[in-house]
Design a protein that fits this description.
elongated, 178 residues, 2 domains
Length: 178
């Protein structure tokens, strides 16, 4: 998946500036791109060249002008075609599991330190997700199904971190570290 499809999806809700897109991507818990200017503006140029978006310059007096991007019918068709394509298998990339594979080299205190550090990191991510849930806002551009889908995506992420904490408890118990 490319960031282009994510941008088309975000613009399908309402027209936005590159800055608006950057903010949404950076604040998202599941849009995994860094959301830096190079990524976003490069993608917007590609989408413009393909006819998937248009832009309109909005002058703001003494403030810098803004380019507001809008998805075109061709862009919506491209997004729809991508949404209908077969999903990619999920990726599971957990560096911690690689560390854990050789954690038998550690003494008990070191292993407890490693587990506590990872557990704290998982707790932190869970708290960040809970904070994001409070900030998720849905404008008139979202229908009931769209709102439900976004809430369930968030729920999936919360469930993943919650399960990770349960698994850590089982790991500690199996290793006699409780």
């Amino acid at each position: 998946m490319s960031i282009n499809h994510a941008i088309l999806g975000l613009l399908s809700g309402k027209p936005m500036t590159g800055y608006d897109l950057k903010k949404l991507i950076q604040e998202s818990s599941f849009l995994y791109w860094s959301g830096n200017n190079n990524q976003i503006y490069k993608a917007l140029v590609e989408l413009l060249n393909e006819g998937f978006v248009t832009n309109k310059v909005h002058h703001q007096g003494s403030l810098p002008s803004k380019k507001i991007y809008t998805v075109t019918p061709a862009g919506l068709a491209e997004l729809r075609q991508w949404v209908l394509s077969p999903p990619e298998p999920p990726e599971f990339k957990k560096t911690f599991l690689i560390q854990l594979a050789w954690a038998d080299l550690l003494n008990t205190d070191e292993l407890n330190f490693l587990l506590a550090g990872y557990e704290q990191e998982v707790h932190t991510q869970l708290l960040l997700l809970e904070g994001q849930a409070a900030r998720i806002s849905f404008g008139q551009e979202c229908n009931r199904r769209g709102i439900t889908l976004w809430k369930l995506i968030h729920s999936n992420l919360v469930s993943t971190y919650t399960h990770e904490l349960v698994w850590l408890g089982q790991l500690r118990q199996e290793l006699g570290l409780t």
